[in-house]
Write a structure and sequence with these properties.
Layout (H helix, E strand, L loop, with lengths): L1 H19 L3 E6 L4 E4 L1 H7 L17 H11 L3 E8 L9 E11 L5 E9 L1 H47 L3 H29 L8 E3 L1 H11 L1 H6 L2 E7 L6 E3 L1 H23 L2 E10 L2 E8 L6 H6 L17 H11 L3 E6 L5 E8 L25 E5 L3 H13 L3 E5 L2 H10 L4 E5 L7 H11 L7 E5 L5 H10 L2 E4 L4 H17 L3 H5 L2 H16 L1
Parallel strand pairs: 7-9, 13-14, 13-15, 15-16, 16-17
Antiparallel strand pairs: 1-2, 1-5, 3-4, 4-5, 6-8, 9-10, 10-12, 11-12
Helix pairs in contact: 4-5, 4-11, 6-8, 8-10, 12-13
Length: 528
Amino acid sequence: MKSRSKSNSTKNLMQALTASIPQAMAALDGRRRIMLTNAAFDRMFGASNPGDRLSDFFDPKGLKDIFKQCARTSRSVEKRELIDTPKNESDPEVSYSVTVTPHSDADLKSKFLLLIDDTTEGSDREDRMIANSRLVSVGEMAAGVAHELNNPLTAVLGFSQLAMRQATDDTLKRDLESIADEAERAGRIVDNLLTFARSSDTFPDSQTLNITDSLQKILNLREYECRVNNVEVVTYFGDETPLTLADAHRMEQVFMNLIGNSIHAIGESVGHGTITVGVVHDEGRIRVSITDDGPGISPANQKKIFEPFFTTKPIGKGTGLGLSICKGIVEDHGGAIKVESAAGRGTTFVVEIPIIEVPEEVDAPSLSTPAQPNSYTKLKILAVDDERSVTMLLNRALVAQGHDVDVAHDGAEALRTIFLNEYDAILLDVRMPGLGGAEVYRSIEVLRPDLADRVMFITGDTVSPDTRTFLEQTRVEVLHKPFSLEELRHSMDKYAVLKEQRPSEAELYGRPDLSAGITRMKSARKAS
């Protein structure tokens, strides 16, 4: 009785120890049939009985080779990253780390102890770290490439538009229009690169965002596209969805992209379908869901869908930046974006952002119409850029608009010209070899403070921290490369209005208290 009691006590202790092991554990005979499992194994793979085959519960690719190696060497074998592909295609893959230890009993019969760890979460975390490291590198590369591309794109777009105005042959006009359209398309791709590179270290501007109004505006813009693709749109907006503080323009870019992807998915595969856009709010968050009944997304693609440059669209139809940019914008707002999909059963994108109380003084950006100048107001303009193709374009375009233009190709030449002349507007490139735009502007503030409010920066670099900080500090107007001739003309309207409002030099000389000072200032400047 004492011996039996001691045996039962030992058995209970072994069972307790087995149950406390956090890994899934299975004791197996030489034919890999189950002799004993613990609770963790049963939770992960289902309850088993002695004599059941291990392969009916757990059989990832490569496991049999581990058992063979273990039997051959009579040593424990540890293997990481065994991938178990689920039978149901909609279920995600699971990664495991396994350890197999051999044992022979008194009769020299082989047995195995199998320990299993679910390492899916750790593997995903490592994948995210690798992906983040790649994103940093891609962002730095994108910023440099985008800046270098913006200068030639400015020249291509501008000169093609100039040539279109002079062309008389219809075929030539169409060719030039194609060049201009493709230059604009390339410019949008570069802008997406810059947005992608910028998304990890910027913060949203504080504006009042009415999500339901923004979504309705985007659906109105997409109405024609939905109609030609036989797409019906269904909306359900929760009652009294609260306002929040966000960068309204960037969040609308997210919704525009997601709705556009849904239309494309339906139009390219099914030919007709429904998009459902819903808005609800609870627990301090607003949740937007955009659902389509298109072909869905495979589990393998769902893992990659937010990676930059990954796209399922044909070459020329997409850059693969849209969803990665959306993810960056949403996360910048303290929110999250996720996808729920299954092949053949449609796709749902869910965007969540926090509700931030809107102070009374914060309101939507003003939409007041700026004052318009007289059509005959002539400006004296200085164009400063180290790219000669850009200064040539500015000179040609502005002269065609009726203005008087000087050009300078570096900062030192610009300062000499500015010091000795009067200008109504100064177009100043930010990044130039030697004396850059920032240094030139600071010098203008000291040497010619009367011209400081007549400076407009032209730049293709809005990503580098130094440039962004400088532009935010100075609050000077910026014309982004590549710009169209129409954008250039509109940008000059402000300076034409300022000139019309400024007293003329003749009026100033008519005032005795100012006349002598102006004369002395000019004499001193020329002597210097």
